[in-house]
Amino acid sequence: MRRTLQAIPLLLAISVILYGILYNMPGGPLAPYLQNPHITPADIARLRHNLGMDQPVPIQYLKWLGHVLVGDMGYSTSNSEPVFQALIERFGATFELMGASLVIAVVVGVTAGIVSAVYRYSVLDYAITTLAFFGQSMPVFWFALMMQLAFAVHGIPLPFGYQIQLPSAGISSSDTFDLGDRLQHLILPSLVLSLLSIALFSRFMRSSLLEVLGTDYMRTAAAKGLPFRTILFKHGLKNALIPVVTVLALSLPSLIAGAIITETIFAWPGMGRLFYNALGQSDMALLMGYLLLVACLVVFSNLLADVVYAWLDPRVKYD
């Protein structure tokens, strides 16, 4: 409860900073109208007055905050629809992409980290380390284009005349729901989005597990004759996951940021692509709504990480 209450002033401070930055962006909130040759300066002045933009910025912020607290995030000038409705309509697609990417990152990254720690300084360890550095240094946009070129344009040939050919864009091929078709469209963007997280999870898991394997209680468990698999998964893995949970909570912003590029390249109809389009049209209401929602998700993920800490290690106290 205390951590939740502490999140309230944090979100307020974030909203103040975001509002100030977006309000002072080039062209201001009325930038979409300034690009229209049919709108006169008198029309701009009238719009500024009707929207309350001729008032001091703190007053405008307080009015915006009052509307947000009752669920009104404003009206999108680029989509001609309420901001909350625009975000909710696309939240499902983004959640689907982020969920799949997170599952892939956790499963592959943690598994690779465990294997790398158990077989340290082996050829397998060096191979996983090399791939991890590759994943950390690979630009998302370039990797996405290369994946499209390999799997969607040319295809990967297989024995007996088969070939791997995956869709290059979109969330499905038709308006009717088809699970197999949906999964095919999900493969490439989720792999691209999870690349950096896989590299981070594998490196942190390896270093954390190596530290745990050298502790006294692990050597005591081995001296008692317990099988190595039992020692590793029952005694070592749970304690080694604590740093990984921290990285997992902090990886949410990078997943969301990566989703902006990934969704744009793969034409994925999610919030990231919506944000990119709104940024190009200076849609302040939509930009504020998206960034505020992202801030809430980041704060919530950190609160969830605090709960997981206490579950993994009962010695963790928040008194």
List the helices and strands and how they pair.
Layout lengths: L1 H22 L7 H4 L6 H10 L6 H13 L13 H36 L4 H15 L2 H15 L1 E2 L5 E2 L14 H35 L2 H8 L4 H38 L5 H10 L3 H29 L7
Helix pairs in contact: 1-12, 5-6, 5-8, 5-10, 5-12, 6-8, 7-8, 7-10, 8-10, 10-11, 10-12, 11-12
Tell me what you see in this structure.
This protein starts with a helix and ends in a 7-residue tail after the last helix. The protein has twelve helices and two strands, in the order H-H-H-H-H-H-H-E-E-H-H-H-H-H. The chain has a two-stranded antiparallel sheet. The protein is globular, with a radius of gyration of 24 Å. It is mostly helical and 319 residues long.
> How are the strands ordered across the major sheet?
1-2
Approximate strand percentage: under 5%
* Helix share, percent: over 70%
Number of helices: 12
Averaging pLDDT over every residue, what do you get?
A: 84
Secondary-structure element order, as H and E? HHHHHHHEEHHHHH
Secondary-structure class: mainly alpha
Largest sheet: 2 strands, antiparallel
Summarize this entry quickly.
The chain has two domains: 2-69, no CATH class; 92-312, Orthogonal Bundle (MetI-like fold). It is mostly helical and 319 residues long. It has helices spanning 2-23, 31-34, 41-50, 57-69, 83-118, 123-137, 140-154, 179-213, 216-223, 228-265, 271-280, 284-312; strands spanning 156-157, 163-164.
Characteristics of this structure?
two-stranded antiparallel ribbon, 319 residues, 12 helices, mainly alpha, 2 domains, MetI-like fold, 2 strands
